[in-house]
Amino acid sequence: MTVAVSYLLQLPTAPPSPVPGCTTCAALAEKRAAAQAKGDYSKVSDCNVRMRRHHKHRAATAR
């Protein structure tokens, strides 16, 4: 017996922009750019997640 599995795929969200004046966001954006230039998309994704979870970033985007 075969069971059909259904997946709901969504387009990826846009990468986060660094919060102006935030050194943590700026550093993560630099690491992300370097990783993308190397083709290390796993690290690019990690930087995006860390930037979105960064407390100053969350506060700035909640406005």
Write structural notes for this entry:
- The protein is mainly α.
- Helices cover 57% and strands 0% of the residues.
- Helix 1 packs antiparallel against helix 2.
- It is elongated and about 60 Å long.
Compute the separation of the termini in Å: 52 Å
From the alpha-carbon coordinates, what is the Rg to the nearest angstrom?
16 Å
Number of strands: 0
Q: In one word, what is the shape?
A: elongated
Helix content: 55-70%
Question: What's the short version?
Answer:
This protein is mainly alpha-helical. It has helices at residues 23-38, 41-53, 55-61.
Give me some keywords for this one.
63 residues; mainly alpha; 3 helices
Blueprint of the fold:
Blueprint (H helix, E strand, L loop, with lengths): L22 H16 L2 H13 L1 H7 L2
